[in-house]
Structures are given as C-alpha cells and as structure tokens.
Amino acid sequence: MRLMSPSPARGDQWTFLTNHARVLLRIADDPEVRLRDLAAGIGITERAVQIIVADLEAAGYLTRTRVGRRNRYTIDPTVALRHPNEAGHPVGDLLTAFLHREDPPAPERAEADAAARP
C-alpha cells in the first residue's frame, strides 16, 4: 500500500500579488527584459507571460516598442488599478511601493555616520 503525503493546507496556496502584478513589476524593474527570462523568474510559462503582457498592453498599462530584435516596454504610471476598490490609485503607486524602497546604508557609511555623531 502506497502512502500519500498530505495535500498542502488551503491557506498555503495563495499569494498577495497576481501574476499580472509580478510581470508589471519585473518590466518596471527592467524595461528590456526578455519574456523568456521574465517567465523563468516568476515561475510561469513564456506563453502565460505573453498573454499577460498583451492584457497589460490592451488595458493601457504598458506600450511595447521594437528596438532591433528586442522589445522595450514603457509603463504608464497614471493608469488606475482595475478593481473598483483600488480604482482611486494609479498603478504608479504599486510600482513605487515595490521598486523605490530606500536601501539600508552600506556598513561603511553607517560606521562613518556613527563615528561623526557627538
């Protein structure tokens, strides 16, 4: 008789961000990212990323420009989020929250700042 491992608890399967948000954040971080690399980084198929990029482009969140053999993506941070509860917020708020966090000071800088204090 084969013992089956218990299935993960229902609460272990959800995340806060959708794949659409993850794709948009990754493109905002690297506007020239290849969809293949984006898919690998997120853990979804390249075809799923293609569909998501098409969705985001159709909704006006991003535009695609051909540069040689590659695409360059430009995000419009003024487009409102889609859910009625978040419609008062532009997508730029989401991007700012995730991409523009201040980095902690480097150890050398922190030590110099501490030494300069009276």
Automatic annotation (TrEMBL):
Signal peptide: none annotated. One of its GO terms (molecular function) is DNA-binding transcription factor activity. Residues 19-68 form the HTH marR-type domain. Pfam families: MarR_2. This is MarR family protein. It comes from Streptomyces wuyuanensis.
